[in-house]
Request: fold
Amino acid sequence: MATLLNELRAMGCDIDEALERFLDNEQFYVECLEKFLDDGVFSNLETSLSSSNIEESFQNAHNLKGVCANLGLTPMYTIIYDMVEDLRVGKMPENAIERFHQIQKLRDDIKQLL
Reply:
């Protein structure tokens, strides 16, 4: 487990701060991380972005942003943060699908570590 956490740190994730929120329970953190990576919010966001549904995209992106923050997934959070702010004001972000694919790539990279 230490290897996983160190690899996440090397990716730029703020694992130490995230672990504080998880009361330093590494096992619980990893369980939550695994559940998050398999959550339907990723496919829901892709669908809403593809159909240019701003309201649904905002809800999905906002949900994703919150969980990324709680898990300390800083690289993913950075991408989704800008998307949420554009959607919040009713604007479909430029390159929304491209940004989503960056998020997917990060998710896949983290899944590989597990």
